[in-house]
Task: inverse folding
């Protein structure tokens, strides 16, 4: 196998290697790496692959990888890099000798002026390349990547190699919420929606459901990758919109009528999906947890039903889906059970889970005997986080309830989050600390990274 | 609502377990859409479809006369017909009625409302 250097973006760190692994599976690329070498603080990561074609394919859909480079050498300073390059068998350079080329210098955590970059490039003139330089469409692009311990210090690591492929970050701008016609308070930003589609292994002809579809962010990104998509929401006004725009407007905006199959109004707690078979390749969703969605319950008179909500399994006390709170724990149980039944084997469930940073414990992640936990990526907002959970269906549905720990963890989470440790209701006070909606969360993220 | 979706929806009124599928389409308006033909997608849907229900629904709508059982071998022609049935027929309004309990699920702007009333869950 051949070593390649993966050059990640330096944010959403906790999603990067997870996306890489998902893409390796999606693209059926054989990859080897040492997880211990990976660090959230470092944008460079060395992997082993079988070919340049594989490398290219591996990251062509990546949102969190900038480039992949066939790694020729690395060193702690330039003399070491030159020495290594000079020690190679001349045969290595043969394929490149007469082709057109270009050199690029990339820096991480430091900067180089144009002049400095040119000077660095010139130091590589000992390489036996006789082809002409072509900045627009070179046959080969060689890259020098510098990593700095601090902007004021010299680089501590230098990599040199041949660029073989790039990620697809331009999609983040293409599906930017700022340009989207129909938005809601919890529309998911384009970058995370795209990452979710990758985590879900969404591909050409997948059938994907978002059971809490809202304004349809995931329909758009999943259909971008060629999936046929369906959405449902208890709130028809989310789907139809209030003014002139609706999910249909977005579908039109992105020209996806051929791929987005439609939406239905339905309650996840009492859903109408035919229950005699596996239907979906993926479920990609952002469930309505009290944290954000609680504020926008459907406008019926809830005072009438202020008694504790009867549970679904209590046959004598049917619940009223439009007017009772949908407890977080129950949302999760319903979602997980739904996925374990309705996903095809090998299909994936990708969803968000808010957790209280202080109290978080990995047992808070629900488990199910037919679903395997694939990834758990944290996006932190200080006191609370949301985690992107990826699960894969590994066994046909078995009618086993969720394991105890998961439930307990979430029950505790809900208690602390809304009521404080003493059980006293603190919902009103807590509200101020929580981002009101996705757009605001987006700002938090932006200011942190840019 | 496309017919592929219709083929996946059942009546879920509490206690309604007999004749709750397929839902009968009534007083519907249909719009024909154009979708890219994709044989692989149709093939991958075959074992997820309820064939009998599809045959019954398309027959009663006068759209197609499918064999009662799913044929073992599907000709290209048949795949194209299925593609048209499943993806290109869009029901923009009307209602779906449960043959078991008579619950009516209205369809408005192409969006079926599958919510139940308080006494039905
Ligand atoms: C966090 S939002 C999803 C936002 C969506 N990802 C988007 O991009 O717009 C959660 C959605 O769940 C819906 N919802 C709440 N309770 C529900 C239920 N019982 N069944 C189905 N949908 C429900 C809400 O109406 C809301 O649109
Ligand atoms: Zn019924």
Result:
């Amino acid at each position: 196998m051949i070593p390649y250097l993966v050059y990640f973006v330096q944010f959403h760190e906790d999603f990067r290697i997870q996306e890489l692994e998902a893409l390796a599976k999606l693209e059926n690329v054989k990859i080897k790496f040492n997880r211990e070498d990976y660090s959230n603080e470092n944008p460079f990561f060395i992997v082993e692959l079988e070919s340049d074609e594989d490398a290219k394919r591996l990251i062509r859909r990546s949102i969190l990888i900038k480039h992949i480079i066939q790694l020729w050498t690395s060193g702690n300073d330039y003399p070491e890099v030159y020495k290594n390059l000079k020690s190679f068998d001349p045969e290595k350079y043969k394929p490149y000798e007469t082709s057109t080329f270009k050199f690029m210098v990339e820096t991480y955590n430091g900067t180089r002026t144009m002049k400095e970059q040119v000077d660095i490039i010139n130091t590589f003139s000992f390489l036996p390349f006789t082809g002409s330089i072509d900045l627009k469409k070179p046959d080969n692009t060689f890259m020098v990547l510098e990593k700095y311990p601090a902007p004021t210090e010299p680089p501590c690591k230098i990599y040199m190699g041949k660029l073989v492929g790039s990620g697809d970050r331009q999609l983040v701008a293409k599906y930017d919420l700022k340009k989207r016609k129909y938005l809601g308070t919890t529309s998911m930003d384009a970058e995370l929606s795209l990452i979710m589609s990758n985590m879900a292994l969404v591909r050409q002809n997948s059938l994907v459901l978002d059971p809490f579809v809202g304004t349809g962010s995931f329909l758009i990104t999943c259909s971008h990758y060629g999936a046929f998509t369906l959405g449902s929401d208890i709130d028809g006004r989310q789907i139809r919109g209030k003014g002139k725009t609706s999910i249909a407007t977005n579908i039109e905006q992105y020209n996806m009528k051929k791929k987005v199959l439609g939406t239905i109004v339905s309650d996840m707690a009492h859903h109408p999906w035919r229950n005699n078979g596996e239907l979906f390749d993926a479920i990609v969703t952002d469930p309505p947890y009290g944290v954000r969605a609680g504020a926008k319950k459907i406008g019926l008179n809830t005072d009438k039903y202020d008694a504790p909500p009867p549970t679904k399994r209590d046959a004598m006390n049917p619940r009223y889906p439009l007017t009772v709170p949908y407890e977080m724990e129950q949302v999760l149980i319903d979602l997980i059970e739904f996925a374990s039944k309705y996903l095809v084997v090998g299909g994936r469930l990708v969803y968000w889970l808010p957790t209280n940073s202080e109290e978080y414990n990995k047992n808070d992640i629900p488990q199910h005997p037919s679903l395997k936990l694939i990834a758990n990526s944290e996006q932190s907002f200080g006191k609370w986080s949301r985690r992107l959970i990826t699960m894969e269906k590994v066994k046909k549905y078995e009618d086993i309830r969720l394991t105890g720990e998961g439930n307990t963890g979430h029950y505790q989470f809900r208690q602390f989050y809304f009521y404080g440790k003493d059980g006293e209701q603190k919902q009103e006070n807590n509200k101020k600390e929580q981002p009101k909606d996705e757009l605001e969360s987006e700002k938090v993220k932006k200011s942190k990274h840019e | 609502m496309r017919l592929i979706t219709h083929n996946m929806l059942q009546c879920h009124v509490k206690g309604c377990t007999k004749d709750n599928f397929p839902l009968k389409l009534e007083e519907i308006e249909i719009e024909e859409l154009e979708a890219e033909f994709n044989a692989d997608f149709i093939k991958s849907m075959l074992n997820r479809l309820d064939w009998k229900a599809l045959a019954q629904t398309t027959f009663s709508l006068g759209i197609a006369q499918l064999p009662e059982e799913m044929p073992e071998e599907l000709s290209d022609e048949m795949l194209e017909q299925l593609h048209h049935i499943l993806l290109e027929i869009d029901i923009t309004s009307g209602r779906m009625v449960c043959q078991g309990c008579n619950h009516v699920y209205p369809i408005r702007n192409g969006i079926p409302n599958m919510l139940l009333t308080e006494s039905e869950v």
Summary: The domain at 2-168 of chain A is CATH 3.30.2130.30 (VC0802-like). Chain A touches chain B at residues 204-205, 207, 228, 230, 232, 234, 236, 239-240, 248, 257-258, 261-267, 270-279, 318-322, 344 (CB under 8 Å). The pocket of S-adenosylmethionine (ligand 1) is lined by residues A 184, 186-188, 212, 214-215, 217-218, 233-235, 238, 267-269, 286, 288, 293, 321, 326 (CB under 6 Å). Chain A has a mean pLDDT of 84.
